[in-house]
């Protein structure tokens, strides 16, 4: 066992963001006149103009209690994140225009207000927490110490305030600086030192975001190497837990948005730690981390469309700062096009760390990588992703196996996505509106989470079941120049006693006008009552002909099938998306007319 002397490694005296006050001021002056930065700076200035005229938002008790009474999160979180938007915006404007007293006053008021919040956690993360417990013993003999929980956003707030302090302490009133120190120590450092939190051993984004934020705040604020070593020794195992949630090929089962979130905070912390230790602690020096970094380029299918299995969004943008940084570490990291850049106001959570690094890490010399045809197959999570570039455009296909107890799980074994020229034809609904019920035993009643909202069979009027015991087994996978094949056994996804075997085979024919052939083969111990082949599509124009049905948008997709064996019913499905907006999608239900103990279904999806 190797014993690492963290205290010695952390004694390196180096600046983490700028080497000096002069360098910092010079850099901010230079970007304010640099044309390549202007689109992002204009967005920030426009936002500053908007919020400077608005009243400082507050979080009254009526908003705090709303989640516990109704289960809805948006009302509180809208105000909470608006305050973080003000924090980020006024900080950047102070750095750009340090003589503008209006921005400095607004920044100090915002910091003061955040320091006054009852909790930096979201109410949705405070169930059964010290903050919501009313069973407290008071005594004059003992000092009363408030117990604090640490969730994603409490940790992020600490990181934000610590880094903002380091960037603006020349301008802030000393009392504001003192409050930042006091609140971060009280709410984050002391609770972290004295307690263990469940997220420290989790294998998803919580471990990276919480631990990475705490570690980053400590690197900025803790001056004693011994105290800093205590924190870092706790943070590093949590980062290792986060990495355990990935297989060696780096696929993020939580989806791209959570990759951008969790891995982003892994990178932010790793960068600061590497600088503080003079490169002696380098969390990038791992082939697994390298492969995780490449997930971004693997899950983008066409322009802004991504593989959005689980609680992910169907479209995405990129943090160019993060992308440019990773491209300097890994030479096979593909630099995305600049028109995929995330706008400043796009992050509804208003996270400081990526917002500032989209400026600090932006490299105007980084040239975008030309996208090409590629098929990526991940065996253990059973993801199959193929992007085909032809004279007719870009066509993409993605399918998944795995099991029904994955992070942010959907019951979706055998589900697939099909796109042509930046248009979705077979879709994944992605994440729904997060509420209390969304994460309890009612989760799979939500259309987007249960198999009823995915392109998978409905057998004897039953959907897939949740749990790790409901899994897909890979029968075959091959990647060839002209045809990709992916075949799964998915009978274990269901709890139908009569269902003995169900194989689903995808044949992706990579022609100039590609086509996907889907074949499902069923074996039952007794005659089934019903078999429905359900496919989820956006609201497209549908026309029928003798051989099948056509889906028309900007492109056209024909679905060919045997009408003597299948009858088609089209259903409208209402879906409340992650942002609380109602979407109308459609289900194409191909009903097997005469289901038998041994039967098969074949459909051809032909781009035309």
Q: How is this structure best summarized?
A:
With 608 residues, this protein is an alpha+beta fold.
Which features does this protein show?
globular; 16 helices; about 20% strand; about 600 residues; alpha+beta; 8-stranded antiparallel beta sheet; single chain; 5-stranded antiparallel beta sheet
Query: Residue share in helices?
Result: 25-40%
Overall 3D form: globular
In total, how many beta strands?
A: 21
* Amino- and carboxy-terminal Cα gap: 62 Å
Computed structural class = alpha+beta
Strand count, sense and barrel status of the largest sheet are: 8 strands, antiparallel
User: Whole-number radius of gyration?
Assistant: 26 Å
What low-confidence regions span 5 or more consecutive residues with pLDDT below 50?
none
Calculate the mean pLDDT score and round it.
Answer: 96
> What is the count of helical runs?
16
What does this structure look like?
There is one protein chain. With 608 residues, the protein is an alpha+beta fold. It is 34% helix and 22% strand. It has 16 helices and 21 strands. The chain has an eight-stranded antiparallel β-sheet with strand order 11-12-13-14-21-18-17-16, with no helix packed on it. A hairpin with a 2-residue loop joins strand 7 and strand 8. The longest helix has 23 residues, at 74-96. It is globular, with a radius of gyration of 26 Å. The mean pLDDT is 96.
